[in-house]
């Protein structure tokens, strides 16, 4: 594969997490040989997403609008704020149907070994939001991994120092697991038993 | 993730081989949160590849031109034709530096269970090419898997019926393995010992 366009495509596919040079070559081959229409659809989707998707002004998740659907919904209980790591985690909580409050999406978690510090996850914007829109209770729903626990600890301490009631999802969630892979009833129970 | 553009992106990423819904979500999140520039580069690369990459008129591999670099090189020995499954396999043979003939790239291999028959790999175009440009010897360098062997068998019989000398890479290549993952010196030996 010495052709410039082909090399560019293989190189560009390697930006995807978990995709090495061999996988990228297989992907390029598959697209060019079997699914050129799909490749064009992917190009258009990437372009559209990059241009139109920004962060919700209230909860920081991805949205095409100023506010995401949840934040724009007047039925949600603004007294409770649930803090999650990613949009996928938020989505898992939503699918339980047992949470009616609002969210704040950190878009990451503390990971000192990977150089992800307090400033790289949305702790600053979270504290600003709490100032602007005080909540009676904040539920820490970060993952039950070492990094998720550290994130919950740092945020929990900062909130308690501001006199805010902080709870954590109950340990019904299996330790060491990532929220988005946990079955919905376990998440629902953990939500009810929050400590 | 209920946003239309985000759903489109996740859906579009699933066209990539080996990418399920969870991986696609992670990829979308990674691109939007950490690498929007890379996402734009990927969109451009997909677009460029789909529009500019076609099949070499002589060997059927991917190229931006009428002929690929190897087929356009007057130094290559047109008396020997090596048949491979994919551009990646061709590339592995080229990297051994021990083959100076031409290639024909099938762009697949027989796989009756997956519905890939003789007509889906380039056997017709291969036979037309042999009529047009007779070669003194054809080397079958398909994989040493059951499917690769079946492919070699079908093509070998068709060529022998036309009175063409057919050889196969020597069994120096470990059985059950795919050519592109084999180390270069093994391929070079197998090429020298072709039977
Ligand atoms: Zn929001
Ligand atoms: Zn060619």
From TrEMBL, chains A, B:
Keyword Zinc-finger applies: yes
MF-aspect GO terms: DNA binding; zinc ion binding
InterPro entries: DNA_Rcmb_RecR, Rcmb_RecR, Rcmb_RecR_Znf, TOPRIM_dom, TOPRIM_RecR
SMART domains: TOPRIM
Ranges where the Toprim domain occurs: 79-174
Pfam families linked: RecR_C (PF21175), RecR_HhH (PF21176), RecR_ZnF (PF02132), Toprim_4 (PF13662)
One BP term from GO: DNA recombination
Keywords: DNA damage, DNA recombination, DNA repair, Metal-binding, Zinc, Zinc-finger
UniProt xrefs under PROSITE patterns: RECR (PS01300), TOPRIM (PS50880)
Lineage top rank: taxon: Bacteria
Zinc finger residue extent: C4-type: 56-71
Family assignment from sequence similarity: Belongs to the RecR family.
Described purpose of this protein according to its UniProt entry: May play a role in DNA repair. It seems to be involved in an RecBC-independent recombinational process of DNA repair. It may act with RecF and RecO.
NCBIfam families: recR (TIGR00615)
Protein name as annotated: Recombination protein RecR
Species of origin: Scleromatobacter humisilvae
Source organism phylogeny: Bacteria, Pseudomonadati, Pseudomonadota, Betaproteobacteria, Burkholderiales
């Amino acid at each position: 594969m010495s052709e410039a366009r082909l090399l560019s495509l293989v190189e560009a596919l390697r930006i995807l997490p978990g995709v090495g040079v061999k996988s990228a070559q297989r992907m390029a081959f598959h697209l060019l040989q079997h699914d050129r229409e799909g490749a064009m659809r992917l190009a258009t989707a990437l372009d559209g997403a990059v241009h139109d998707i920004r962060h919700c002004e209230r909860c920081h998740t991805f949205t095409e609008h100023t506010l995401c659907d949840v934040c724009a919904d007047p039925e949600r209980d603004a007294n409770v704020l649930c803090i999650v790591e990613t949009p996928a985690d938020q989505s898992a909580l939503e699918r339980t149907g047992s949470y009616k409050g609002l969210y704040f999406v950190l878009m990451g978690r503390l990971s000192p070994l990977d150089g992800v510090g307090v400033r790289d996850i949305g702790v600053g914007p979270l504290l600003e939001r709490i100032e602007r829109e005080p909540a009676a209770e904040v539920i820490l729903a970060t993952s039950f991994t070492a990094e998720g626990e550290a994130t919950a600890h740092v945020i929990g301490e900062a909130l308690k120092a501001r006199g805010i009631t902080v709870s954590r999802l109950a340990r019904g969630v299996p330790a060491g697991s990532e929220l988005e892979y946990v079955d919905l009833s376990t998440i629902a129970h953990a939500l009810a038993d929050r400590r």
